[in-house]
Amino acid sequence: MKDEPRRVEVALGERRYLIVIGRGLLDDRELLRDCVSADEVMAVSNETVGPLYLERLESAFAARRFASACLPDGEHEKRLESMLPVFDTMLVNGLSRDCQVIALGGGVIGDLAGFVAATYQRGVDFVQVPTTLLAMVDSSVGGKTGVNHPRGKNMIGAFHQPRAVIADLAVLDTLPDRELRAGMAEVIKYALLGDRDFLDWLEAHIDAAMARDPAAMAFIIERCCRNKAAIVAADERESGERALLNLGHTFGHAIEGARGYGDWLHGEAIAAGMCMAARMSARLGWISAAQRDRAITLVERAGLPIRAPDDIGPARFREFMARDKKNRNGELRLVLLRNLGDATVTADYDPRALEATLEAVGH
Ligand code: NAD
Ligand code: MG
């Protein structure tokens, strides 16, 4: 028997939308046509994902005006220049302000296609069809869209909420293991920052999840989407609570920056970053050594790095951490653990705990 899709609402008043999660959704034409209501459709994908799944959209929308663009693969393509051929295709095909954009891909395509939708003719609707675990649990939900600038990641963008998110679990079958693990870092993040019950569940089911057990994956994606939806509904523009989603990210971004983006995957850097946040929280006495080790063990069991590369010294860490968007008045704000499943954003900590945590990298 086919399982009914799971549905999670993102409660944003008139802009509320549904995240639909299930296996085989891309073969469900009725669902696709319900979620994408426009007569004119522009699908954006990349050269890896497009050949695998674009045809499903093409056939579902055969009766409508349908255009598509497949960009080269890679984070490097998440830049303004890559948007131009997408706009060209839309204009050449005569797509009007009533068209809808579909983002078919991981976070790179979701962020870029979302920003295309935010800006084409001053804004058109879009639907996210995330194809990585990371995109399903994180980037496709919440309305942050944008591209990178040579001087910084995600420096150009807009808040633009999708009309729907369609997460077809079957597409994860082709996702490389390393990308699955990287997505699992963000999954663990939700548990550590605010969902203690989910943390218990993950500890019991992490092996099933890493083996891509369908029931485990469905549960994980729904649970993470519920967590993200609640945070986004409470703080759409990140004036408060949404910053908790940066657990592990201040340390992690420093690892990515110091390494040169692309060497470590984002999720790998965030995994090591969360372990650093746990170690620092333990140094502060906010969590016990046993709790710290619980967090680190879970990260390790997901096949993720638990230590930053040992050639990044404290000075280099500080250089990159100083650029963090959360900082106010020169104070370094960090997401730290007051307990497992209870994170806080604060600049109110003993700086010696940070120093010791940075010093300990490489030892
Ligand atoms: P990605 O989009 O680069 O995808 C990772 C790799 O997997 C790519 O090579 C892609 O082609 C391939 N791939 C995707 N789906 C596949 C599938 N089903 N089968 C086979 N291969 C597949 O990376 P990502 O990790 O999904 O996203 C990272 C991006 O997301 C970053 O740019 C990051 O800034 C952004 N992000 C945005 C938000 C947000 O709130 N908007 C949140 C987190 C991350
Ligand atoms: Mg992240």
Report on the architecture of this protein:
This protein has a 7-stranded mixed beta sheet with strand order 1-2-9-6-5-3-4, with helices on both faces. It has 2 domains: 6-174, Rossmann fold (3-Layer(aba) Sandwich), CATH 3.40.50.1970; 177-360, Dehydroquinate synthase-like - alpha domain (Dehydroquinate synthase-like, alpha domain). It has helices at 29-35, 50-60, 80-92, 107-119, 133-139, 177-194, 196-210, 214-234, 249-259, 266-283, 289-301, 314-321, 351-360, and strands at 6-10, 17-22, 40-46, 65-71, 100-105, 125-130, 144-149, 152-159, 164-168, 334-339, 342-346. Helix 9 crosses helix 10 (266-283). The protein is of the alpha/beta class and 363 residues long. The protein is globular and about 65 Å long. Bound molecules: nicotinamide-adenine-dinucleotide (NAD) and magnesium ion. Magnesium ion (MG) binds at residues 138, 186, 249, 266, 270. Its main location: cytoplasm. One of its GO terms (biological process) is amino acid biosynthetic process. Its cofactor is Co(2+); Zn(2+); NAD(+). Its EC number is 4.2.3.4. Belongs to the sugar phosphate cyclases superfamily. Dehydroquinate synthase family.
